[in-house]
Amino acid sequence: AQTVTQSQPEMSVQEAETVTLSCTYDTSENNYYLFWYKQPPSRQMILVIRQEAYKQQNATENRFSVNFQKAAKSFSLKISDSQLGDTAMYFCALRDLGAGNMLTFGGGTRLMVKP
Amino acid sequence: DTAVSQTPKYLVTQMGNDKSIKCEQNLGHDTMYWYKQDSKKFLKIMFSYNNKELIINETVPNRFSPKSPDKAHLNLHINSLELGDSAVYFCASGSSYEQYFGPGTRLTVT
Fold first, then answer.
1. In the A/B pair of chains, how many CB contacts fall below 8 A?
2. Does B96 contact A at CB distance below 8 Å?
3. What does the pLDDT look like over B23-66, one tens digit per residue?
4. In chain B, whose CA is at the least distance from the CA of A3?
5. Beta carbons of B42 and A108 less than 8 Å apart
6. Which of B45, B90, B97 minimises the CB distance to A33?
7. Whether pLDDT at B18 is above 90
8. Alpha carbons A12 and A64: distance in angstroms, whole number
9. So what's the pLDDT on residue A15?
10. pLDDT at residue A77 greater than cutoff 70
């Protein structure tokens, strides 16, 4: 069975600074996708960034980037120039292509951006 | 132009009642899903459904049943509601490399 672990229940960062959220996972598959989702207080789940396991290059989306370490099964999210609107729950998720394309989520990290 | 929509957004009902949550997607995806988010924010898959196959999570009670009238819709029916069913339920649709979520339905069972 695949698992996703987020070891930081809560984090805070000052506005304009950089913060890194950690995620580790376990899967027996070689082909899979990893995702970070943001859930603001509105509770909407917003896709932030995705990474294909077969790509060595780390994904980047504007201020968001990942550090994907396949051998270590690590997938951290870096948020640069943090903004107040980044305050939210962040979920790491794994899609194992052999498991009906369902997502397995980590427990989430609550990020607070302070002015 | 909402990609994945759910109705209702809030649902308050009494124990023992039967209720349904509707979901529609206009993204053209073949696969739709239901997830449950509990009070501690844990998100867990309940069902995955496409035109050909329903994949049921074994931990989901059989009081929960998904119904798909067509590829763009996946409704969730819940019979004999219990207090422990209180949660936020998310519908999602996706392909192999992306998955988009609806706004969620907060279900409160009293």
1. 57
2. yes
3. 999 999 888 999 999 999 999 999 888 876 787 777 899 999 99
4. B44
5. yes
6. B97
7. yes
8. 16
9. 97
10. yes
